[in-house]
Amino acid sequence: MTKTIAFWVPGIPRPGGSKRAFYNPRLGRAMIVDACSKNKEWRAAVAWAAKEVFSGTPLRCPLRVSFKFEFTRPASHFGTGKNSGYVRDSAPSYKTTKPDVTKLVRSTEDALTGILWVDDSQIVNQAAWKRYGDRNGCQIEVEYEEANSC
């Protein structure tokens, strides 16, 4: 029997996975840190939303996951004056600017590790979208077979 865990994460999706290295002369070694410090807020929002809908032990079975990232449109996509509430015909349909969808997925997967699943290597099928919407956030859906010793 297929089970689904679905939830919405409010907030501005942030990328993860990029690293920055620098040499620390006091310690005498290189330090590696996340290049995007703002992803801590996003990861916390993802973890909070997941804990609201799932309180069991992390799943240990094969998973199918979808991530639908939404971003609000910038003001330049809308008309002015009497057309201020309407999207311009020339506005793009899809968000093709940074951040890239693979880095958004990476930070979101990492936030769910230890909450929804033991390790993101359990994901055997994955889909991700990045689009403009009415609000910032991400719709996450996780499917698994209950009989697969989850």
Descriptive overview:
Helix content is 18%, strand content 34%. It has 150 residues and is α+β, with helices and mostly antiparallel strands. The chain has a 4-stranded mixed β-sheet with strand order 1-6-4-5, covered by helices on one side. Helix 2 (101-112) links the parallel strand 4 (63-72) and strand 5 (123-133). The termini are close together.
User: Which consecutive residue ranges, at least 5 long each, have pLDDT under 50?
Assistant: none
Q: Give average pLDDT, whole number.
A: 92
Query: Order of strands side by side in the largest beta sheet?
Result: 1-6-4-5
Strand coverage percent = 25-35%
Give the CA-based shape. Answer: flat
> What's the oligomerization state?
single chain
Order of helices and strands: EEEHEHEE
Largest sheet: 4 strands, mixed
DSSP strand count: 6
Number of helices: 2
What Rg is obtained from the alpha carbons, in whole angstroms? 19 Å
Q: Helices and strands: which structural class?
A: alpha+beta
Helical residue percent band: 10-25%
Termini distance?
Answer: 12 Å
